[in-house]
Give the backbone structure.
Amino acid sequence: MFRFDKEQKVFNFSGIPVGGQPGENPPLMIASLFHNKDSVSKTDRKGNFDRVRTKEMLKQVEQISGATGVPAMIAMVANTPDEAKTYIDFYLENTSMPFGIDMWVADQRAKATEYVAQLGVQDKFLYNSITPWDKDIKGQVQRLKDLGIKHVVIQAFDDQDQSPAGRVKSLEAIMAQGADSFETVIVDTSVMNLPSTSFSLVANRMIKEKHGLPCGGAYSNGTHMWKEIKDIWGLDGFKAMDAVVQGMASALWSDFNFCGPVITAPRVFPAVASAHMLLTTLVYDESGIIYDNPNLPLRKYFGEFITKLQEGGSRKKGK
């Protein structure tokens, strides 16, 4: 269940290992900033936002990432290239974390990506994303190559077949057009709502089994779009549901997680770290392996427990 025969690719994204066998590396958490109704930045979409508060939140993400061992980056939501430029400049001045730009309109996203290339910061930039709805995937791939873009997300989804197998077929159709030729390729298996998150997780497993690529999803889509639950369960109930779903999803064949607004990091990162600790011991029970990555949450908090397990040979297979 937690060990793939297929060799799993591990990409080095701005010093962060992304991918591998379950339990090998903590999932990369991708938090969003400057989205609509962002209570942190309160942007007016014209480059005016609360810089002091935003800087504080970036530092908080850095701290919670360091404390949990769960790596972090920020995806900045922008509507225009000029808006994106303002955010990128501010971001690069205030943090060393890698980043992405979240822009749905392809032409606008391309112009923002050109600015990233002009600055020469392609090493820490994650292009999000090459999608099945793009009209000219081959042309997009070539433009990204010309700009020196190294790290990309492929979004896998099939409107006609929304099953896990449909996501696999979508990915393969996109890869066939050259989208798999970048230095880093990670696959977003398209969360549509909370219950269908399971389809994305199964698709993660299928893709890792067949192609060995890092997989994940925007698990916050499934939780934050369930708006009426706040009225039914209250804010605390929503927060609990969000943390559980994102933790559980991150433990099931996920190498990264678009985890929602940056302000939720103090609860989501510990949830994911806790889930990864359980995943690590599940992997150990199945394979006898605990990976060497020093940032594994289990290693950060339960090193003595690991030592006792390994010295005692508890549950090691074949022993």
Summary: The mean pLDDT is 94. Residues 10-312 form a domain with the TIM Barrel fold (CATH 3.20.20.20). The two ends are 20 Å apart (CA to CA).
